[in-house]
């Protein structure tokens, strides 16, 4: 347990998952689904949320059971817990969100092999309390969902000129009203590079670069402020 | 020392066994909870797909349940495994059309699976691509969701030369992406042929 106040600890976990250790653009874990499914916002966010559910549940269960898991067989046990959870999510989606299940297809069962789930079980959940591990899992998953949403929006917008296409798969027929056509539908606009895998690589590369740039800018600002704070008292003293 | 190692191994094995057992139990429960809904979903999705090859309101039976078995040669002509069936559409008990599943390996990106509806008088009522891996934006025009290319196949029967125009047939294709159209055209032609054989065979039996 850390000595910091609980809220500070929770904020740190959230910041870590959403930004500092972001699964998609910093750790670059679980790239296969990120690259394959991010052809539209709806696909990306749906898979992201399914992954979030799994990372949160697996984090909580690993943290809950960690006293009972002998160290030398922890990996097989983690894999079993994760695989069982994924299968439950897979069956639940097949039963209650069949249209979306048909679109995401093989990538739901493949959440099992998503390195981020295993990585958080090993690196975080096996050493922390249940609520912290659940939060960590949820935040890591949401961080990944964010990346999937932005990348999906980017590729959908450039590739097809729409946003939220396929919303009817999640919300039923009412979802059709949500689809935004930024390029009129009858023009049949399509830019293949964005929709095919190379577009995913290029988009993800831009996002990694963008995050680095934002971080670098924040660092420069902090350094400048620090320097100013050091210089100013001296300047005042000299006066 | 060896005894301790053996004890430890036994403890590990038993723990793993316990976890396996618990996981199996959870999976069994989740399977039982979702089984019926999943089966219903799959049936509904399949029925909706089959129904798309027929004019709306042209039938009133359960397309998934009402089937007619195909012979080995008929199934082979459609690219299917032995024991395949055709779905039968009826209105007030009268045969309206039969819907065939066809699979062809001649697509540009691999196998293409289709559903082809053939009316009682041997004409194509509709064609739907169920699964394909054709190039997005190029060969995927065979898919009704992408273009209305497949509409030209409807209404045709045995008299049609089931080849693309480039090969001396009757069917238009998009230049630069002929292979996809060629595969679908050939497969639909096979379905029309099988429908004709099947109709003749069933008439004979009566």
UniProtKB/TrEMBL annotation, chain A:
<dbReference type="InterPro" id="IPR010968">
    <property type="entry name" value="RnfE"/>
</dbReference>
<dbReference type="GO" id="GO:0022900">
    <property type="term" value="P:electron transport chain"/>
</dbReference>
<dbReference type="GO" id="GO:0005886">
    <property type="term" value="C:plasma membrane"/>
</dbReference>
<keyword id="KW-1278">Translocase</keyword>
<keyword id="KW-0249">Electron transport</keyword>
<comment type="subunit">
    <text>The complex is composed of six subunits: RnfA, RnfB, RnfC, RnfD, RnfE and RnfG.</text>
</comment>
<protein>
    <recommendedName>
        <fullName>Ion-translocating oxidoreductase complex subunit E</fullName>
        <ecNumber>7.-.-.-</ecNumber>
    </recommendedName>
</protein>
<feature type="transmembrane region" description="Helical">
    <location>
        <begin position="99"/>
        <end position="121"/>
    </location>
</feature>
<keyword id="KW-0997">Cell inner membrane</keyword>
<feature type="transmembrane region" description="Helical">
    <location>
        <begin position="189"/>
        <end position="209"/>
    </location>
</feature>
<keyword id="KW-1003">Cell membrane</keyword>
<feature type="transmembrane region" description="Helical">
    <location>
        <begin position="21"/>
        <end position="41"/>
    </location>
</feature>
<keyword id="KW-0812">Transmembrane</keyword>
<feature type="transmembrane region" description="Helical">
    <location>
        <begin position="133"/>
        <end position="154"/>
    </location>
</feature>
<dbReference type="GO" id="GO:0012505">
    <property type="term" value="C:endomembrane system"/>
</dbReference>
<keyword id="KW-1133">Transmembrane helix</keyword>
<dbReference type="InterPro" id="IPR003667">
    <property type="entry name" value="NqrDE/RnfAE"/>
</dbReference>
<comment type="similarity">
    <text>Belongs to the NqrDE/RnfAE family.</text>
</comment>
<dbReference type="Pfam" id="PF02508">
    <property type="entry name" value="Rnf-Nqr"/>
</dbReference>
<keyword id="KW-0813">Transport</keyword>
<keyword id="KW-0472">Membrane</keyword>
<comment type="function">
    <text>Part of a membrane-bound complex that couples electron transfer with translocation of ions across the membrane.</text>
</comment>
Automatic annotation (TrEMBL), chain B:
<dbReference type="GO" id="GO:0009055">
    <property type="term" value="F:electron transfer activity"/>
</dbReference>
<keyword id="KW-0812">Transmembrane</keyword>
<comment type="subunit">
    <text>The complex is composed of six subunits: RnfA, RnfB, RnfC, RnfD, RnfE and RnfG.</text>
</comment>
<keyword id="KW-0288">FMN</keyword>
<keyword id="KW-1133">Transmembrane helix</keyword>
<keyword id="KW-0597">Phosphoprotein</keyword>
<feature type="domain" description="FMN-binding">
    <location>
        <begin position="107"/>
        <end position="195"/>
    </location>
</feature>
<keyword id="KW-0997">Cell inner membrane</keyword>
<comment type="function">
    <text>Part of a membrane-bound complex that couples electron transfer with translocation of ions across the membrane.</text>
</comment>
<keyword id="KW-1003">Cell membrane</keyword>
<dbReference type="InterPro" id="IPR007329">
    <property type="entry name" value="FMN-bd"/>
</dbReference>
<keyword id="KW-0813">Transport</keyword>
<comment type="similarity">
    <text>Belongs to the RnfG family.</text>
</comment>
<keyword id="KW-0249">Electron transport</keyword>
<protein>
    <recommendedName>
        <fullName>Ion-translocating oxidoreductase complex subunit G</fullName>
        <ecNumber>7.-.-.-</ecNumber>
    </recommendedName>
</protein>
<feature type="modified residue" description="FMN phosphoryl threonine">
    <location>
        <position position="178"/>
    </location>
</feature>
<keyword id="KW-0285">Flavoprotein</keyword>
<dbReference type="GO" id="GO:0005886">
    <property type="term" value="C:plasma membrane"/>
</dbReference>
<keyword id="KW-1278">Translocase</keyword>
<dbReference type="GO" id="GO:0022900">
    <property type="term" value="P:electron transport chain"/>
</dbReference>
<dbReference type="Pfam" id="PF04205">
    <property type="entry name" value="FMN_bind"/>
</dbReference>
<dbReference type="GO" id="GO:0010181">
    <property type="term" value="F:FMN binding"/>
</dbReference>
């Amino acid at each position: 347990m850390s000595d910091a106040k609980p809220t500070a600890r929770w904020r740190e976990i959230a910041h870590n998952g959403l930004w500092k250790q972001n699964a998609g653009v910093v750790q670059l874990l679980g790239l296969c689904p990120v690259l394959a499914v991010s052809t539209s916002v709806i696909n990306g966010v749906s898979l992201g949320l399914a992954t979030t559910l799994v990372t949160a549940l697996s984090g909580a269960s690993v943290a809950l059971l960690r006293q009972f898991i002998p160290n030398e067989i922890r990996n097989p046990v983690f894999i079993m817990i994760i695989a069982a959870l994924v299968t439950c999510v897979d069956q639940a989606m097949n039963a209650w969100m069949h249209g979306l299940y048909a679109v995401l297809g093989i990538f739901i069962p493949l959440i099992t092999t998503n390195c981020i789930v295993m990585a958080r079980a090993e690196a975080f959940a096996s050493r922390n309390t249940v609520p912290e591990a659940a939060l960590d899992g949820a935040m890591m998953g949401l961080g990944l969902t964010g990346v999937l949403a932005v990348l999906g929006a980017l590729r959908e917008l450039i590739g097809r000129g729409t946003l939220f296409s396929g919303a009817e798969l999640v919300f039923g027929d009412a979802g059709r009203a949500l689809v935004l056509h930024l390029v009129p539908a009858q023009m049949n606009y399509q830019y293949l590079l964005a929709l095919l895998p190379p577009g995913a690589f290029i988009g993800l590369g831009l996002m990694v670069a963008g995050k680095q740039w934002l971080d670098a800018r924040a660092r420069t600002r902090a350094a400048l402020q620090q320097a100013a704070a050091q210089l100013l008292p001296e300047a005042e003293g000299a006066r | 020392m060896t005894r301790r190692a053996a004890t430890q191994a036994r403890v590990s094995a038993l723990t793993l066994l316990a976890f396996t057992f618990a996981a199996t139990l959870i999976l069994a429960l989740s399977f039982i909870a979702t089984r019926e809904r999943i089966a219903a979903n799959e049936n509904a999705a399949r029925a909706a797909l089959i129904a798309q090859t027929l004019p709306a309101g042209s039938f009133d039976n359960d397309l998934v349940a009402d089937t007619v078995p195909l012979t080995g040669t008929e199934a082979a002509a459609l690219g299917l495994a032995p024991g395949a069936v055709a779905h039968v559409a009826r209105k007030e008990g009268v045969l309206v059309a039969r819907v065939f599943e066809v699979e062809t390996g001649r697509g540009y990106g691999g196998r293409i699976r289709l559903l082809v509806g053939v009316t009682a008088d041997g004409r194509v009522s509709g064609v739907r691509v169920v699964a394909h891996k054709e190039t997005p934006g190029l060969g995927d025009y065979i898919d009704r969701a992408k273009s209305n290319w497949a509409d030209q196949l409807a209404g045709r029967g045995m008299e049609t030369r089931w080849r693309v125009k480039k090969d001396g047939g009757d069917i238009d294709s998009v230049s630069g992406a002929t292979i996809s159209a060629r595969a679908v055209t050939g497969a639909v032609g096979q379905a029309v042929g099988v429908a004709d054989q099947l109709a003749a065979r069933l008439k004979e039996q009566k």
